UniProtKB/TrEMBL annotation:
This is NADH dehydrogenase subunit E. Pfam families: 2Fe-2S_thioredx. Belongs to the complex I 24 kDa subunit family. One of its GO terms (molecular function) is metal ion binding. It comes from the Bacteria. Keywords: 2Fe-2S, Iron, Iron-sulfur, Metal-binding. Its cofactor is [2Fe-2S] cluster. Residues 1-29, 273-294 are annotated as: Disordered. It comes from Actinophytocola oryzae.
Length: 294
């Protein structure tokens, strides 16, 4: 039996005016019954409210235009533009989707399809830091699963373990942490690993991971094992969007941290010690086929 719904809309191809009440009498008259609603109320129910884009001010629009000018096809700027949106709000909100769609002359559905495909784009507000624990096979058996489980409980807000992409504390505030489990982070030789804002912390244990997140919650920024010094998620998102600090010397100093580990280079070192070399590359690479223009 159909329950009356307060929509005033149509369903199953049959139209019903506001204030009418129908009961379904068969497949061709599968009409949701209605009660009195105004056309404005009906529109508000079936059309999502236009999000407020004021958070994306002139400087964000200018950056978006720089991104668009980088590519022959404007839609190619979508991935970096989603990072730009995340640098502003800490996630990709409905407003962020609308902003990208407007800038790139795409539909909201096209932007949403991309934003929901990649795990690097977050659909809930994130903390100051994003902690990603590798729970892929090798790290998992070396202790990644235990690290994740320990952090889920340790970072709990209310006694129940955090779930994937839940935040400990208030999103955006100093010391807040979003926790996620991640697939292979391409550092299997140093597992179990975790990342904070995509910077590596190698050879972790549940205890060292707890010490790390406690330091983050106190507002500290412990040095990663390799790579650049730690900042915060929104700063990293801006860098992923292609924008770096004006003080280039300071920035270069920050990213010129050690990136290789002894374990990572062991194979190359072994080959060098034994005089092994890779086969020579052909003089001329084969021509790539023409790609049909879309
Ligand atoms: S399995 Fe964890 S880095 Fe590869």
């Amino acid at each position: 039996m159909n329950q009356p719904l307060n929509t005033g809309s149509t369903y199953g191809g049959s139209s019903v005016g506001a204030g009418e009440t129908h009961a379904a009498t068969g497949p061709d008259t599968d009409v949701i019954a209605t009660s009195a609603v105004s056309p404005e109320e009906t529109r508000a129910l079936v059309e999502p409210a236009m999000p407020d884009l004021s958070v994306f001010g002139p400087d964000v629009i200018a950056k978006a235009q720089v991104q668009i000018a980088t590519y022959p096809e404007s839609r190619s700027a979508l991935l970096p533009m989603l990072h730009l949106v995340q640098s502003v709000e800490g996630y990709v909100s409905q407003a962020g989707i609308q902003f990208c769609a407007q800038q790139l002359e795409l539909s909201n559905a096209e932007v949403s399809a991309v934003a929901t495909f990649y795990t690097m784009y977050k659909r809930k507000p994130c903390g100051e830091h994003l902690v990603s624990v590798c729970t892929n096979t090798l790290c998992a058996v070396l202790g990644g699963d235990a690290i994740y489980e320990r952090l889920q409980k340790h970072l709990s807000n209310d006694g129940s373990p955090l779930k994937h992409e839940d935040t400990s504390g208030t999103p955006g505030e100093t010391g807040s942490i979003t926790l996620e489990h991640a697939e292979c982070l391409a550092a299997c030789d140093l597992g179990p690993v975790l990342q904070v804002n995509y910077e590596f912390y190698d050879n972790q244990t549940p205890e060292s991971a707890v010490e790390l997140v406690d330091a983050l919650r106190r507002g500290e920024k412990p040095a990663p094992t390799r790579g650049a010094p730690l900042t915060d998620l929104r700063t990293v998102e801006l860098e992923l969007a292609g924008f770096y600090p004006e003080d280039d010397a300071e920035f270069r100093g920050r990213i010129d941290g050690p990136s290789a580990a002894v374990e990572t280079l062991r194979g190359a070192q072994l080959a060098a010690d034994r005089g092994w070399t890779a086969p020579a590359m052909p003089e001329k690479a084969p021509e790539l086929p023409e790609v049909e223009k879309k």
